[in-house]
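Lab notebook, bench 4. We co-purified these components, and the gel suggests they stay together. Before we commit to crystallization screens, I want a quick structural picture of the whole thing.
Request: model the full complex, all chains together.
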Amino acid sequence: MPILNEISALVKRIPTSMQEILNERVIQIRAEIQQGVKKPYKQVLNLSSGDPQALSLKPLTFVRQVLAGCLYPTLLHGDTLPADVRQRVQTLLGECAGEGTWSHLETHGIRKLQHSISDFISRRDGVASDPDNIYITNGSTAAFMTLLKLFVPNGSSLQTGVLTPEPSYNGFKFALAAQGALVVPYYLREEQGWAVQLDELHRAVLTAKGHCNLMALYVINPGNPTDIHPVLSPGHVQTKDSIKDVIRFAAEERLIIMADEVTDAHKNMIVCVYQSCMIGEGMEFCSYKRALMEMGAPYSNMVELASINSISKGPMGECGLRGGYVELVNFDPSMKQNIFKLFSAMQCASLMGQIALHVMVDPPRPGQPSYPLYTNEIQSNKREIINNVRRTLGVLNSLPAITWQPVMGGMFAFPRVSFSQAAINYAQERGQEPDVMYCLRLLEDEGLCFLPGYELGMTEGIYHIRITLAAQEEIMKEALQRLKNFHLRFLKEFPALERPGGNTNPDPLTATASSVMGHADPNTPLGWRH
Amino acid sequence: MPILNEISALVKRIPTSMQEILNERVIQIRAEIQQGVKKPYKQVLNLSSGDPQALSLKPLTFVRQVLAGCLYPTLLHGDTLPADVRQRVQTLLGECAGEGTWSHLETHGIRKLQHSISDFISRRDGVASDPDNIYITNGSTAAFMTLLKLFVPNGSSLQTGVLTPEPSYNGFKFALAAQGALVVPYYLREEQGWAVQLDELHRAVLTAKGHCNLMALYVINPGNPTDIHPVLSPGHVQTKDSIKDVIRFAAEERLIIMADEVTDAHKNMIVCVYQSCMIGEGMEFCSYKRALMEMGAPYSNMVELASINSISKGPMGECGLRGGYVELVNFDPSMKQNIFKLFSAMQCASLMGQIALHVMVDPPRPGQPSYPLYTNEIQSNKREIINNVRRTLGVLNSLPAITWQPVMGGMFAFPRVSFSQAAINYAQERGQEPDVMYCLRLLEDEGLCFLPGYELGMTEGIYHIRITLAAQEEIMKEALQRLKNFHLRFLKEFPALERPGGNTNPDPLTATASSVMGHADPNTPLGWRH
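Here is the predicted assembly.
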């Protein structure tokens, strides 16, 4: 009998990822096609992931040129790389421990990068930021994993609980489970554009009482276009007043705020270059730190805030490089040594991710040779997503039994699908949720992969599918055609109501959804100023 | 009062890293020099780290060219990159989810890379390797951290214990502490060339009884030139017989073997290209897996083995890219799903590290354009280290109160220093260990940073300093001159015995050390066949 005959309870608690199951099946089907297995399609289209580059959205040339130059400084001779790229590379190489190479002397990150991030935050918020409070990590998941170690386990006999929005990306929930903490869900209301509601937070706190030791509140802002909060058809941006309410709530309940503020490169660009950051129609991005500092004492010097950002999303979309940071605000200075020790024990973050992070917080400036291309590429990626939103809404509009919330911006569509009782029964017989069954069949029949809303933690009886919008035009068109074909066939097999909302067992939170939801105007899908 | 007013017990248990403290001081001193503070030196030399490139050892051109090409495929047009680099880039890009870019679809690593690693292991060991048992990670620390989650916590009221060699790199001990596991030390004997001794393993097991739930045995082989086992002046390579003894021991005691087999690029090269792997004089590297399979049943299908490798060490030395893998052998297949789930929850490893890993396990072959340069660069880096060993031993030979074990190979010297009672008292008054005091003074007085043996877990009363040998000639010469100046001044202040061994409170394990230790011949410091 093997020694490890039972997996630790901790690992068992990590939910199985539908995303992983679907990805594995995508790989299998691709292999089957290569082996000559007959399928009604030549190619699998995977529009389930939150990885912008997986669907051929182009990486930003400046980022890649700087990385190539840092790795292979021979490129600095001659004019293979533009002058400002060469200059950036020289500056970054000057920060290395070795000469012209890359080493991992400083486990908390490149010193200069800490300062650049701190400058970026100061510019964004109009509030000072201390480079010593910035820790650089292998992306946002690594940042959360490490942070959670500070207070999980906590010595209490009860598990540590963290208030967590649903629906949301499962990565954070995986991280909580992997650290032995408990997800205490608070539900975002579809009919309110997935905004955080104070009464729902209070309700969630009550559910936690006696079951766990509630220590932190996880918030995601903006709710787009990060895949951290993938319910992107709404793509909620929190207002400053709402943020202040949440901060007061956290102070009353004595909760640490873990803010997932993966401000995407659009916004970073705008923040950096124009000192303003409009992304949604009439919506101004406000960081939790800025709101906190505006509130003044006692909040501004009392509420503990960890704000996390990463290079994975937006037009930069460098998921594969792994880069992120966390800024700690109001953490007890006496713990600094221990926090530093913890982050150091995790080893330094990938230097390639760190370099990309440097470009993200300090992009090319007007007048520099790379500025026009850099901004054009961002605009072009943005345009591609906007066109895909239009295309997608156009097709969804033509399909019965599908509705959605108006899109404010982002990288995903998240339409709601209505299933007939027959379809629900059919799924149940297979031990599947209806949306999972729908996505699995879509993948088998049409070679098209979307993510079921189930993965993101939907309330029972409410079903969504998540469609990645960051795809090249031809891929998107083909995907929508396949969706249309499948959906109409599916409805012939399982005729459904014209509008969702008549689902069985609706949750009280979303019971009124059907009354406010409807078909949006495909011509004004985004609030971005383009 | 802040909510997080006390750090979790788990983080508290992570030991403070002398390496980090020294690095911070190095950075401070460098800043002081820049600010015009007068010092008796113009430049700080940091020879404390295990990062080969930090001391200007050159990165391998082929690795960097492949990385640059993958990041910026425009370089594939024209002849900026050699033909085999371009071909490798094309192959790797073909493995991406996106076209010509990099995304993180497969959280367990690039599929092709899993196969390449599996091929490499099969060639090395002459035993089949299943790609599905290979998990790619952000370096070896990440691999250990994730693995430990499988059995820590274990549901037992006792903490999970792991048998861990001392002295050894503190990274693994940090990982254990960060996961809430307990280090159960077994001491490597200096006078036996730091070899693992069965009687010492049995002694360590007895110390653990009743204190913890012993689950695993951590072994490091070869003991060089990884910084995982940094006692590199001995640089022990385990014999196949010794490995089999250890495997039998693990089977009897029902322990999972976690083998740190960071086979460096020399050996990988030799393994890959020549199917042989001599590194020490008369020493043949044998992997734990190979030994295990040779033993046959019941061992070969029973003993659970996790073997870890990384790109950080040897002439590749790509610490900053973060790349490593673990192969799991004999783990219960029923747990595969959970293990996969766990590694997936950690997110994919840095793709740049994965690409470098690909080159490490499948380097340029004879006849390919890059082969001559690749092998020359490795030989040159190797020669530089060998010359540094000669230089270092030459200087150490001239210094009183210093001895060492014969060097078999590697990246560090680890001489033992004899301190007088006066020096010990002086250190105690400052709350420091004598070797820590020595290194701190060396840094302040001479701007030279070495790592005290204390950091690596030495027994009480035995003091060492660790000197990185992977440095450019000029840096090494300058460092040795500074060491000489300091050491002679130090001995004037604190006169010591000519030979160490007369230390107070010697540990029984090493009490006989002085009788077998002596000055080695600087002309035959390494067993490498050069």
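Chain A has 18 helices and 16 strands. Worth comparing against the SEC data before the next meeting. The mean pLDDT of chain A is 80.
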